[in-house]
Known about the structure:
Layout: H1 2-11, H2 20-30, H3 38-43, H4 46-82, H5 114-147, H6 157-160, H7 173-194, H8 205-234
Amino acid sequence: MKEKILSFLKTNTKLQGVPENYLLGVAEHYSKTVTEETQIATTFTDGVIDLLKLNANLLQSEGDKRATEASKTALKNFQKEHGLNEDGTPIKPVKPVKTKEKEVETTDEPVIPEWAKKIQNENAELKTKLETQEQEKTSAALTDKVLKHEKLKGIPASWLKGRNLIPKSEGEIDQLAETLEADYNGFKQELVEQGVIMSVPPASTGSAKEGEAIGKTIAEKRNANASDGVKGKEV
């Protein structure tokens, strides 16, 4: 899968000119979570590609800067070692002046330069965004499976709106669907007991039969109440 991801990244026009070793590192990282070839295109969206391009440019810029600084440092060390000025002429000796030495606190902890901190922050933000996108895709896929569940067929979308349709995992899809079905059946029973007539979609044969049964129950209940009222008047 790593080679397929690398091939996909190489063919992306936005990543032209990005060092191959950087793309190889990206492919290595994503091969741990992308297990199917169909997931590659959905994972590397335009937003993700732009972030990868930005990160690669930052690394390249900082690398060039470090190379320049290293060259300058090497030149200064050479001049200092051989006693030369910047123009290459020998430095005239200067009589040393004694000064009181100041105590300098030392620490064993390494000092992280600002440019390195900046890259660390950029990588942390990139990781957070990628994890968020991955979580959103997973939640959307789980919700879609719940909505297509056999037990939810015939339940109006208006009733499902605003309810929790996101299970924590694949194994909880059936349980969530059963819970929603039970809640909906309880809701319908309350409507029957209150004498409310529910509209039945004409396209669903099963729902039509169910609507007929509900209508019959409501009619019987109303007739019974009417009979009780007539008897009361006769007495």
